[in-house]
Write a structure and sequence with these properties.
Helix content is 0%, strand content 31%. It has 172 residues and is an all-beta fold.
C-alpha cells in the first residue's frame, strides 16, 4: 500500500558481489510485495554485450521451494560521442606571385610556406573508448606535381599512427 525505502547493503559472497536488501520483519503470511530496484554498475567495458543478475528472495524461516532464484540478463551498450576538431595555422595563406619552387633545394623556404594542420579527437563520453581508428586523407599530389610537401606527423596522448605518403622525401 505505502512506499518504503529499502535498506540495502553491498557485500562480497563466494567471490561475487551481492546486494542484500531487508524487506521487512515480520512479514505476514501470504503478503505480496513489489520491489523496484535501480542499480548503478560501473566498469563494464570488458564485460561483453550483457550482464546477468541472479535474484533470490530468501526467508530466515525454514527453507522452502519458493526460495528459487531468477536470472535476469540485461544488455550492456557502451555509448560514447566522439568529436573531431581541426585547425590550420596560418588560417589564410597567400603565396606571393614572385615565389617559385627550387628543385633539389634543402632549404624549407624553397619548398613553400609552412602550414601546420592540428587535429584533436575528443571523447565526450559517457563511456570510454578503445580501438578507435581515425583515417585522414591529405591531398599531397596534384597529378604529378607536389601540392603539399609533407614534413612530419606528430601525435600526443598515446596514439599510434601510420602514414602512407612518404614524409619529407627530399630530407628538407
Amino acid at each position: 500500500q505505502g512506499q518504503e525505502k529499502l535498506s540495502c547493503n553491498p557485500k562480497k559472497e563466494n567471490g561475487t558481489h551481492v546486494v542484500l536488501c531487508e524487506l521487512g520483519n515480520p512479514m505476514k503470511a501470504g503478503a505480496q510485495i513489489t520491489v523496484d530496484m535501480e542499480l548503478s554498475v560501473y566498469g563494464l567495458e570488458d564485460m561483453g554485450d550483457a550482464i546477468t543478475f541472479h535474484l533470490q528472495l530468501r526467508s530466515k524461516n525454514s527453507p522452502s521451494p519458493s526460495n528459487a532464484s531468477v536470472i535476469v540478463t540485461v544488455p550492456v551498450e557502451a555509448e560514447a560521442e566522439m568529436e573531431l576538431r581541426g585547425n590550420t595555422l596560418p588560417a589564410i595563406l597567400v603565396l606571393p606571385t614572385s615565389w617559385h619552387w627550387v628543385e633539389g633545394s634543402q632549404r624549407l623556404e624553397d619548398h613553400g610556406i609552412k602550414v601546420e594542420h592540428v587535429y584533436e579527437l575528443h571523447n565526450k563520453g559517457p563511456s570510454t573508448v578503445s580501438g578507435v581508428t581515425l583515417s585522414l586523407a591529405v591531398p599531397h599530389l596534384l597529378g604529378d606535381h607536389i601540392l603539399l610537401y609533407l614534413l612530419e606527423l606528430v601525435t600526443e596522448g598515446g596514439m599510434n599512427c601510420s602514414h602512407h605518403p612518404v614524409l619529407n622525401p627530399a630530407q628538407v
